[in-house]
Amino acid sequence: MKGTYVWLAILVVIAGVKLYNYSAEPSVPTATPEIPVINTYTPIQTSGNLILPSNSYNSTYYTDDDYEYNYRTGYSGDYSYNYSAEGYGNDSGEYVYGDVDTEGKYGEGYLYDEDGNEIYVETEWVDYGVLEATDEYGNTYELEVD
Hints:
two-stranded antiparallel ribbon, six-stranded antiparallel β-barrel, alpha+beta, 15% helix, 42% strand
């Protein structure tokens, strides 16, 4: 009989603890925590194109002086590179210079002749540091990247 009272006492204590836990009010924060501002960068405006600086958390703009390209954008395995290039027309021998963007083996960009005329070209890598560019009239240029 004594064992029954002990078990009964244990059940009452357990029920009381569970009842106490359910009746306690949950703690609610009184103030909303301040969310830090992460996006604190100033975009760089260059000749009409918006370029995000490399310190931007969502930017993939990257420069490295050890390589020939001016800058690189994109994600691992899917980069786009910008190069300064110069060379001569294969047929005319005229000197041209400018910037080209490449992705993989192919690219495009604008070259300028000695008179300052703008020439849109599509490019293809033909050797290490050497691009072959073709303009809209079929003229070809051999360019070396700087």
